[in-house]
Amino acid sequence: MHEHEDPLRDLLVILRHAPHGSSWLKEGLDAALVAAAFGQRVSLLFMGEGVTALMPGQGPGALEQKGTAATLEMLEMYDIETLLVDAQALSALGLSADELMLDVDPVSAEALAEALAAHRLVLTF
Amino acid sequence: MASTEIYRYLSVNNHHYALDPEDYLVDMTQWSPQIAEALAREEGIELTEEHWEVLRVLRDFYARYEMAPAMRPLVKAVGKALGPNKGRSIHLMRLFPGSPAKVAARLAGLPKPTHCL
Amino acid sequence: MLLHVVNRSPANSRVFEQALTAMGPDDVLLLIEDGVQGALPQLVRYYAQIEGRLFALREDLGARGLLGRCAESVQVVDVDGFVTLTEEAERTVSWY
Protein backbone atom coordinates (compact mmCIF):
# COMPACT_ATOMS: atom_id res chain seq x y z
CA MET A 1 0.00 0.00 0.00
CA HIS A 2 2.91 2.38 0.63
CA GLU A 3 6.69 2.40 0.31
CA HIS A 4 8.42 2.13 3.65
CA GLU A 5 11.00 4.74 2.77
CA ASP A 6 8.24 7.19 1.90
CA PRO A 7 8.69 10.04 4.39
CA LEU A 8 5.04 11.09 4.07
CA ARG A 9 2.55 9.52 6.42
CA ASP A 10 -0.92 8.83 5.06
CA LEU A 11 -3.36 10.82 7.14
CA LEU A 12 -3.38 13.55 9.77
CA VAL A 13 -6.69 14.03 11.57
CA ILE A 14 -6.98 17.36 13.37
CA LEU A 15 -9.40 17.28 16.31
CA ARG A 16 -10.58 20.73 17.41
CA HIS A 17 -13.73 20.00 19.38
CA ALA A 18 -14.38 18.96 22.96
CA PRO A 19 -16.05 15.69 23.96
CA HIS A 20 -19.82 15.67 24.61
CA GLY A 21 -20.52 19.14 23.16
CA SER A 22 -20.99 17.94 19.58
CA SER A 23 -20.34 14.90 17.44
CA TRP A 24 -17.27 16.42 15.74
CA LEU A 25 -14.74 14.69 17.95
CA LYS A 26 -16.44 11.32 17.54
CA GLU A 27 -16.59 11.73 13.78
CA GLY A 28 -12.93 12.69 13.58
CA LEU A 29 -11.95 9.64 15.62
CA ASP A 30 -14.14 7.45 13.41
CA ALA A 31 -12.36 8.71 10.31
CA ALA A 32 -9.00 7.97 11.91
CA LEU A 33 -10.07 4.46 12.97
CA VAL A 34 -11.48 3.55 9.57
CA ALA A 35 -8.28 4.64 7.85
CA ALA A 36 -6.16 2.74 10.38
CA ALA A 37 -8.32 -0.36 10.01
CA PHE A 38 -7.40 -0.30 6.32
CA GLY A 39 -3.70 -0.12 7.07
CA GLN A 40 -3.14 3.60 6.62
CA ARG A 41 -0.54 5.31 8.80
CA VAL A 42 -2.59 7.78 10.81
CA SER A 43 -1.57 10.59 13.17
CA LEU A 44 -3.81 12.73 15.37
CA LEU A 45 -3.36 16.40 16.21
CA PHE A 46 -5.36 17.93 19.06
CA MET A 47 -5.89 21.69 18.69
CA GLY A 48 -8.05 24.32 20.37
CA GLU A 49 -10.63 22.88 22.71
CA GLY A 50 -9.91 19.48 21.17
CA VAL A 51 -7.16 19.09 23.77
CA THR A 52 -9.86 18.58 26.42
CA ALA A 53 -10.54 15.19 24.81
CA LEU A 54 -7.38 14.10 26.64
CA MET A 55 -8.52 15.01 30.17
CA PRO A 56 -8.14 12.15 32.63
CA GLY A 57 -11.20 10.96 34.55
CA GLN A 58 -13.89 11.59 31.90
CA GLY A 59 -17.26 9.88 32.24
CA PRO A 60 -20.54 9.47 30.40
CA GLY A 61 -22.73 12.51 29.68
CA ALA A 62 -25.60 13.74 31.83
CA LEU A 63 -27.95 11.40 29.91
CA GLU A 64 -25.46 8.52 30.14
CA GLN A 65 -24.26 9.07 26.56
CA LYS A 66 -20.97 7.39 25.83
CA GLY A 67 -17.98 9.69 25.75
CA THR A 68 -14.84 9.35 23.66
CA ALA A 69 -12.29 8.45 26.35
CA ALA A 70 -12.66 4.68 25.75
CA THR A 71 -12.10 5.28 22.03
CA LEU A 72 -8.92 7.20 22.78
CA GLU A 73 -7.70 4.31 24.95
CA MET A 74 -8.37 2.04 21.96
CA LEU A 75 -6.17 3.99 19.52
CA GLU A 76 -3.10 1.89 20.28
CA MET A 77 -5.00 -1.23 19.22
CA TYR A 78 -5.42 0.43 15.81
CA ASP A 79 -1.69 1.29 15.79
CA ILE A 80 -2.43 5.01 16.01
CA GLU A 81 0.49 6.07 18.13
CA THR A 82 1.47 9.50 16.85
CA LEU A 83 -0.53 11.84 19.06
CA LEU A 84 0.37 15.51 18.69
CA VAL A 85 -0.98 18.30 20.86
CA ASP A 86 -0.83 22.01 20.14
CA ALA A 87 1.30 23.27 23.05
CA GLN A 88 -0.31 26.73 22.90
CA ALA A 89 -3.80 25.27 23.20
CA LEU A 90 -2.71 23.26 26.24
CA SER A 91 -1.26 26.23 28.08
CA ALA A 92 -4.25 28.37 27.13
CA LEU A 93 -6.34 25.97 29.21
CA GLY A 94 -3.77 25.76 32.01
CA LEU A 95 -2.98 22.13 31.23
CA SER A 96 0.33 20.34 30.90
CA ALA A 97 1.03 17.31 28.75
CA ASP A 98 2.02 15.07 31.65
CA GLU A 99 -1.41 15.25 33.27
CA LEU A 100 -3.28 13.99 30.19
CA MET A 101 -4.73 10.48 29.88
CA LEU A 102 -2.42 9.41 27.01
CA ASP A 103 1.23 9.87 26.14
CA VAL A 104 1.27 12.81 23.76
CA ASP A 105 3.84 15.02 22.06
CA PRO A 106 3.26 18.73 22.71
CA VAL A 107 4.30 20.64 19.60
CA SER A 108 5.15 24.29 19.01
CA ALA A 109 3.56 26.35 16.25
CA GLU A 110 6.60 25.80 13.98
CA ALA A 111 6.49 22.04 14.44
CA LEU A 112 2.75 22.06 13.74
CA ALA A 113 3.32 23.41 10.24
CA GLU A 114 5.88 20.66 9.64
CA ALA A 115 3.43 18.03 10.86
CA LEU A 116 0.81 19.19 8.37
CA ALA A 117 3.33 19.11 5.56
CA ALA A 118 4.43 15.58 6.51
CA HIS A 119 1.08 13.95 5.72
CA ARG A 120 -0.45 13.05 2.40
CA LEU A 121 -3.92 14.03 3.57
CA VAL A 122 -5.07 16.39 6.32
CA LEU A 123 -8.64 16.30 7.61
CA THR A 124 -9.96 18.86 10.10
CA PHE A 125 -12.77 18.00 12.49
CA MET B 1 -23.63 -1.14 15.36
CA ALA B 2 -26.40 -3.40 16.55
CA SER B 3 -29.61 -2.08 15.15
CA THR B 4 -32.81 -2.11 17.16
CA GLU B 5 -34.79 -3.53 14.28
CA ILE B 6 -36.04 -7.03 15.07
CA TYR B 7 -35.75 -9.30 12.07
CA ARG B 8 -36.25 -12.74 13.58
CA TYR B 9 -35.97 -14.71 16.81
CA LEU B 10 -33.37 -17.25 17.88
CA SER B 11 -34.78 -20.07 20.00
CA VAL B 12 -32.64 -21.45 22.81
CA ASN B 13 -34.19 -23.67 25.50
CA ASN B 14 -37.69 -22.33 24.78
CA HIS B 15 -36.55 -18.73 25.10
CA HIS B 16 -36.71 -16.45 22.10
CA TYR B 17 -34.03 -13.85 21.51
CA ALA B 18 -34.47 -11.00 19.04
CA LEU B 19 -31.90 -10.75 16.26
CA ASP B 20 -31.40 -7.82 13.91
CA PRO B 21 -31.33 -8.24 10.11
CA GLU B 22 -27.64 -9.18 10.28
CA ASP B 23 -28.17 -11.72 13.06
CA TYR B 24 -26.68 -9.61 15.85
CA LEU B 25 -28.46 -9.73 19.21
CA VAL B 26 -30.78 -6.74 19.56
CA ASP B 27 -30.34 -6.73 23.35
CA MET B 28 -26.67 -7.37 24.13
CA THR B 29 -27.41 -7.98 27.81
CA GLN B 30 -29.25 -11.22 26.91
CA TRP B 31 -26.05 -12.89 25.74
CA SER B 32 -25.10 -16.28 27.21
CA PRO B 33 -22.74 -19.07 26.12
CA GLN B 34 -25.82 -21.04 25.01
CA ILE B 35 -26.75 -18.23 22.63
CA ALA B 36 -23.21 -18.22 21.25
CA GLU B 37 -23.50 -21.97 20.63
CA ALA B 38 -26.85 -21.63 18.90
CA LEU B 39 -25.58 -18.82 16.66
CA ALA B 40 -22.45 -20.84 15.89
CA ARG B 41 -24.50 -23.91 14.94
CA GLU B 42 -26.43 -21.82 12.43
CA GLU B 43 -23.06 -20.77 11.04
CA GLY B 44 -21.90 -24.39 10.86
CA ILE B 45 -19.27 -23.83 13.55
CA GLU B 46 -18.75 -26.18 16.49
CA LEU B 47 -17.34 -24.02 19.30
CA THR B 48 -14.10 -25.39 20.78
CA GLU B 49 -11.87 -23.93 23.47
CA GLU B 50 -9.93 -22.17 20.70
CA HIS B 51 -13.12 -20.36 19.72
CA TRP B 52 -14.07 -19.54 23.28
CA GLU B 53 -10.76 -17.92 24.11
CA VAL B 54 -11.20 -15.57 21.14
CA LEU B 55 -14.78 -14.77 22.18
CA ARG B 56 -13.50 -13.92 25.67
CA VAL B 57 -10.85 -11.61 24.17
CA LEU B 58 -13.64 -9.89 22.23
CA ARG B 59 -15.86 -9.46 25.28
CA ASP B 60 -12.92 -8.04 27.24
CA PHE B 61 -12.15 -5.68 24.35
CA TYR B 62 -15.72 -4.41 24.34
CA ALA B 63 -15.82 -4.02 28.13
CA ARG B 64 -12.71 -1.87 27.96
CA TYR B 65 -13.19 0.15 24.77
CA GLU B 66 -16.99 0.14 24.29
CA MET B 67 -16.60 -0.89 20.65
CA ALA B 68 -16.21 -4.12 18.73
CA PRO B 69 -12.85 -4.22 16.93
CA ALA B 70 -12.21 -4.33 13.19
CA MET B 71 -9.95 -7.14 11.92
CA ARG B 72 -6.56 -5.52 12.56
CA PRO B 73 -7.16 -4.54 16.18
CA LEU B 74 -8.82 -7.92 16.76
CA VAL B 75 -5.68 -9.67 15.54
CA LYS B 76 -3.60 -7.44 17.79
CA ALA B 77 -5.82 -8.00 20.83
CA VAL B 78 -5.79 -11.78 20.32
CA GLY B 79 -2.01 -11.70 19.95
CA LYS B 80 -1.62 -9.74 23.17
CA ALA B 81 -3.94 -12.01 25.14
CA LEU B 82 -3.22 -15.45 23.65
CA GLY B 83 0.26 -15.15 22.22
CA PRO B 84 1.71 -14.32 18.79
CA ASN B 85 0.84 -17.70 17.26
CA LYS B 86 -2.84 -17.01 17.69
CA GLY B 87 -2.63 -13.31 16.92
CA ARG B 88 -2.71 -13.95 13.20
CA SER B 89 -5.51 -13.45 10.75
CA ILE B 90 -5.08 -16.95 9.33
CA HIS B 91 -5.88 -18.44 12.76
CA LEU B 92 -9.00 -16.29 13.06
CA MET B 93 -10.07 -17.06 9.48
CA ARG B 94 -9.88 -20.77 10.27
CA LEU B 95 -11.98 -20.41 13.43
CA PHE B 96 -14.52 -17.91 12.08
CA PRO B 97 -14.53 -18.28 8.30
CA GLY B 98 -15.69 -15.48 6.08
CA SER B 99 -15.36 -12.27 8.00
CA PRO B 100 -13.81 -13.15 11.38
CA ALA B 101 -14.26 -9.73 13.01
CA LYS B 102 -17.97 -9.70 12.20
CA VAL B 103 -18.72 -13.39 12.84
CA ALA B 104 -16.83 -13.50 16.13
CA ALA B 105 -18.38 -10.22 17.36
CA ARG B 106 -21.81 -11.64 16.59
CA LEU B 107 -21.16 -14.90 18.48
CA ALA B 108 -19.65 -12.94 21.39
CA GLY B 109 -22.86 -10.92 21.68
CA LEU B 110 -21.28 -7.63 20.66
CA PRO B 111 -22.57 -5.01 18.23
CA LYS B 112 -21.30 -5.12 14.67
CA PRO B 113 -17.75 -3.74 14.41
CA THR B 114 -17.96 -0.06 13.55
CA HIS B 115 -14.84 0.35 11.51
CA CYS B 116 -14.96 -2.37 8.92
CA LEU B 117 -17.05 -2.10 5.82
CA MET C 1 3.18 24.91 -0.06
CA LEU C 2 -0.17 24.13 1.54
CA LEU C 3 -3.36 26.03 0.84
CA HIS C 4 -5.37 26.80 3.96
CA VAL C 5 -9.01 27.76 3.57
CA VAL C 6 -10.95 29.66 6.26
CA ASN C 7 -14.72 30.18 6.00
CA ARG C 8 -15.44 31.96 9.30
CA SER C 9 -15.20 35.64 10.08
CA PRO C 10 -12.54 36.65 12.60
CA ALA C 11 -15.27 38.87 14.09
CA ASN C 12 -17.03 35.91 15.65
CA SER C 13 -14.80 32.85 15.37
CA ARG C 14 -11.27 32.08 16.47
CA VAL C 15 -10.82 29.38 13.85
CA PHE C 16 -8.46 31.77 12.04
CA GLU C 17 -6.02 31.44 14.95
CA GLN C 18 -5.87 27.68 14.43
CA ALA C 19 -5.15 28.16 10.75
CA LEU C 20 -2.39 30.68 11.49
CA THR C 21 -0.86 28.39 14.10
CA ALA C 22 -0.71 25.54 11.63
CA MET C 23 0.63 27.54 8.66
CA GLY C 24 4.19 27.04 7.46
CA PRO C 25 6.33 29.91 6.11
CA ASP C 26 5.38 29.19 2.45
CA ASP C 27 1.73 28.36 3.01
CA VAL C 28 -1.05 30.61 1.74
CA LEU C 29 -4.50 31.33 3.15
CA LEU C 30 -7.72 31.81 1.20
CA LEU C 31 -10.78 33.43 2.78
CA ILE C 32 -14.14 32.13 1.55
CA GLU C 33 -17.81 32.44 2.57
CA ASP C 34 -18.14 34.47 5.80
CA GLY C 35 -14.38 34.25 6.06
CA VAL C 36 -14.06 37.05 3.48
CA GLN C 37 -14.98 39.58 6.19
CA GLY C 38 -11.40 39.09 7.31
CA ALA C 39 -10.30 40.96 4.17
CA LEU C 40 -11.87 44.21 5.41
CA PRO C 41 -9.33 46.84 6.51
CA GLN C 42 -10.80 46.77 10.03
CA LEU C 43 -10.30 43.01 10.41
CA VAL C 44 -7.30 42.25 8.24
CA ARG C 45 -4.96 42.98 11.17
CA TYR C 46 -5.70 39.48 12.45
CA TYR C 47 -3.79 38.23 9.43
CA ALA C 48 -0.86 40.65 9.75
CA GLN C 49 1.65 37.82 10.20
CA ILE C 50 0.91 36.37 6.74
CA GLU C 51 0.82 39.63 4.79
CA GLY C 52 1.31 38.91 1.08
CA ARG C 53 0.01 35.36 1.44
CA LEU C 54 -3.65 36.21 2.07
CA PHE C 55 -6.31 35.70 -0.61
CA ALA C 56 -10.07 36.27 -0.65
CA LEU C 57 -12.63 34.77 -3.01
CA ARG C 58 -14.14 37.33 -5.38
CA GLU C 59 -17.51 35.58 -5.70
CA ASP C 60 -18.03 35.49 -1.93
CA LEU C 61 -16.98 39.12 -1.56
CA GLY C 62 -19.34 40.14 -4.36
CA ALA C 63 -22.29 38.25 -2.93
CA ARG C 64 -21.84 40.15 0.34
CA GLY C 65 -21.37 43.57 -1.25
CA LEU C 66 -17.79 43.67 0.01
CA LEU C 67 -15.99 43.77 -3.33
CA GLY C 68 -13.94 46.97 -3.48
CA ARG C 69 -13.88 47.24 0.30
CA CYS C 70 -10.92 44.90 0.83
CA ALA C 71 -7.64 45.94 2.35
CA GLU C 72 -4.96 46.48 -0.30
CA SER C 73 -2.78 43.73 1.10
CA VAL C 74 -5.41 41.10 0.24
CA GLN C 75 -5.24 39.42 -3.15
CA VAL C 76 -8.68 38.84 -4.64
CA VAL C 77 -9.08 35.66 -6.71
CA ASP C 78 -12.09 34.25 -8.53
CA VAL C 79 -13.13 30.60 -8.56
CA ASP C 80 -10.67 29.85 -11.36
CA GLY C 81 -7.93 31.38 -9.24
CA PHE C 82 -9.07 29.20 -6.35
CA VAL C 83 -8.70 26.16 -8.59
CA THR C 84 -5.22 27.28 -9.63
CA LEU C 85 -4.20 27.74 -6.01
CA THR C 86 -5.50 24.28 -5.23
CA GLU C 87 -3.47 22.81 -8.08
CA GLU C 88 -0.30 24.62 -7.05
CA ALA C 89 -0.64 23.54 -3.43
CA GLU C 90 0.58 20.13 -2.33
CA ARG C 91 -2.70 19.82 -0.50
CA THR C 92 -5.54 21.86 0.90
CA VAL C 93 -6.52 22.13 4.55
CA SER C 94 -9.95 23.47 5.51
CA TRP C 95 -10.61 25.38 8.72
CA TYR C 96 -14.31 25.81 9.49
Automatic annotation (TrEMBL), chain A:
It comes from Halomonas urmiana. This is Sulfurtransferase complex subunit TusC. InterPro entries: DsrEFH-like, Sulphur_relay_DsrE/F-like, Sulphur_relay_TusC/DsrF. One of its GO terms (molecular function) is transferase activity. Belongs to the DsrF/TusC family. Pfam families: DsrE. The gene is tusC. Keywords: Transferase.
TrEMBL record, chain B:
Its EC number is 2.8.1.-. The keyword Lipid metabolism does not apply. Keywords: Cytoplasm, Transferase. One of its GO terms (biological process) is tRNA wobble position uridine thiolation. Pfam families: DsrC. Its main location: cytoplasm. Gene3D superfamilies: 3.30.1420.10, DsrC-like protein, C-terminal domain. It is found in: Cytoplasm. GO terms for cellular component: cytoplasm. The active site is at residue 116. GO terms for molecular function: sulfur carrier activity; transferase activity. Part of a sulfur-relay system. Belongs to the dsrC/tusE family. NCBIfam families: dsrC_tusE_dsvC. This is Sulfurtransferase.
UniProtKB/TrEMBL annotation, chain C:
GO terms for cellular component: sulfurtransferase complex. GO terms for biological process: tRNA wobble position uridine thiolation. One of its GO terms (molecular function) is transferase activity. It comes from the Bacteria. Keywords: Transferase. This is Sulfurtransferase complex subunit TusB.
